[in-house]
Amino acid sequence: MRSVYFRILPSPFFRKPPITLGVQAKLPPPPELGPVSGISTKMGTAREDGGPRPPSSFDFKAYLAGKLVSVNEALDAAVPLRSSMKIHEAMRYSLLAGGKRVCPIFCIAACELVGGTLPVAMPSACALEMIHTMSLIHDDLPCMDDGDLRRGKPTNHKVYGEAVAVLAGDALLALAFEHIAAETKGVNPSQIVRAIRELGRSIGAEGIVAGQVADICSEGMSNISLKELEFIHLHKTACLLEASVVLGAIMGGGTNEEIEKLRSFARSTGLLFQVIDDILDVTKSSLELGKTTGKDVLAHKVTYPKLLGVEKSREFAKKLNGDAQAQLAGFDPDKAAPLVALANYIANRQS
Questions:
Q1: Which domain of life is it from (predicted)?
Q2: Are the C-beta atoms of 42 and 53 separated by less than 8 Å?
Q3: Is 34 left (phi over 0), alpha (psi -120 to 50) or beta?
Q4: Average per-residue pLDDT for the chain
């Protein structure tokens, strides 16, 4: 069994001193998917964005809509609203505020690709969304990115105050690990332990936290290189998507070789997500995206469009999509179709 670790190298990001860091949520309807291009021809046919296409029989919109319903129902059940418990209300407010559910769906698709099932993947899928939501709650805090809008709604701290928002994020993080341990059924305990270890590494000081610290310390620095920007986003953004795919593959019983191929796929796809996010941040409005835009510009952060320009950033996104999907070449095309379509969906998303 081989584990892959990020090693944090000396970086100018860490020269700065340390940084000190009443609404009932209802289950959201599935979001409008909008037009999704390039999903109805055979695997291997070239796309304009460089990625292969799923088989012609694969209905991506139906797949995505079905998985969204399943994930939202499972999340609703995982965090019940308890009377006079403000913390559960705050947790549900952000967790059930909608969103693309990218991490859970990638987890499920990877699990099913290697022979697993939806019930096997769902506890991990929910845990990943809990952690993703935690990261958004904390990222929006005044001491971090100071966001006012998330998923088209006021951010958690705007509704519940900063203290409760911090605690809601903490509670979601703790619940994520409990949920995997308590709710995963029919899986060898060694696989569950391996998955929990993978998840812990991905979100801690070798993963998301490392990326967040580097991102904060980069504010106002004008000499950030492409390699340093990649370090930030491989950790801050790609780590969680990587964990999503790897957890799905572990729970589904994938071989070490399959898991590592899917890890490489997810790492490129996660970086692709961030490049597209940076592009949208400078080409779309807050109303179109459902979150506060232009924060990176105001904070004088380096982004891919700032470093490369919008067109070169789009070219880089195209390359990342091709690199990611090259890792799926050895899998059954029909079983890999959801992951192919999801990567293309990320590459072409408009919100």
A1: Eukaryota
A2: yes
A3: left
A4: 84
Do the beta carbons of residue 94 and residue 133 sit within 8 Å?
Answer: yes
User: Among residues 92, 127, 118, 98, which one has the least CA distance to residue 30?
Assistant: 98
Question: What is the reported pTM?
Answer: 0.82
Element (H, E) at 149: strand 149-150
Domain of 94 in residue numbering reads as 52-348
What is the Cα–Cα distance from 126 to 122, expressed in whole angstroms?
A: 6
* Residue 2 lies inside a defined structural domain of this protein: no
Report the residue count for the chain: 351
Note the pLDDT tens digit of each residue in 248-307: 999 999 999 999 999 999 999 999 999 999 999 888 776 666 666 666 665 567 899 999
Cβ atoms of 321 and 343 within 8 Å: the answer is yes
Alpha helices, H only, 206-284: 208-217, 226-233, 239-251, 256-283
Structure tokens at 274: 């961030």
Statement: residue 49 has pLDDT above 90: no
Here the tokens at position 245 are 């795919």
Please check whether residue 273 lies inside any domain of the structure: yes
Q: Which domain CATH number covers 270?
A: 1.10.600.10
CA distance 341 to 343: 5
297 lies in some domain: yes
Rg (CA), the chain: 19
78, part of any domain: yes
- Total number of domains in the chain: 1
